Amino acid sequence: MTRSAVASLVVLSTQTPPEAITQTLGVAPTSVVPRGSALRSGQTQEFHVWSVDSGRLPDAPGDRTGTAALRWLLEFCRAATGKAADLPADCEARIWWSSGSDSPDDFVVPEDLAAQVAALGVDIHTATSLDDRA
Questions:
Q1: Most Cβ neighbours (<10 Å): which of 7, 13, 18, 104?
Q2: Coil, helix or strand at residue 68
Q3: Orientation angle between helical segments 111-120 and 68-76, nearest 10 degrees
Q4: What is the pTM assigned to this prediction?
Q5: Rounded to whole angstroms, how far apart are CA atoms 82 and 74?
Q6: Distance (Å, rounded) from C-alpha 132 to C-alpha 57?
């Protein structure tokens, strides 16, 4: 059974400032890392990072799909539906979805969620982990 998940809408840009991304999408980010920021590694951030992050969310009791975080993200970003195509060419937008489970038959994207992602106009990149420990 899926235990919890996290989902993020992330836009990377080399030139477009985060404020312009917010204006285009009509959604306020939960975090921004401006290009040129110092990173913990001592390196400099090479591009702007604009993101809306769900934080780690547990699935509802009885929900074996692992989609609670993805559902939250899509609802939060509903105003951005159809607007990803309006981002400037230097922007790359995608959803990152990560979930952990103790069962290999989870991680289902129901048709209604697939339709919402398609309407948003971005790809989903996933990472899943299987843990059989009780």
A1: 7
A2: helix
A3: 40
A4: 0.86
A5: 12
A6: 20
User: The tokens 């809408």 sit on which residue?
Assistant: 9
CA 28 to chain centre: 14
pLDDT at res. 13: 97
For residue 66, what are the contacts with CB-CB under 8 A and spacing of at least 6? 2, 5, 59, 99, 101, 106, 107, 108, 128
Find where tokens 């195509």 sit: 85
Contact 98, 68 (CB under 8 A): no
User: Can you say how many angstroms the Cα of residue 10 is from the centroid of all Cα atoms in its chain?
Assistant: 6
| Tens place of pLDDT per residue across the chain (134 aa) | 556 788 999 999 999 999 999 999 999 999 999 999 998 999 999 999 999 999 887 777 776 677 888 999 999 999 999 999 999 999 999 999 987 766 665 667 889 999 999 999 999 998 766 665 54
Which stretches within 5-131 are classed as H helix?
A: 18-25, 68-76, 111-120
pLDDT of residue 134: 46
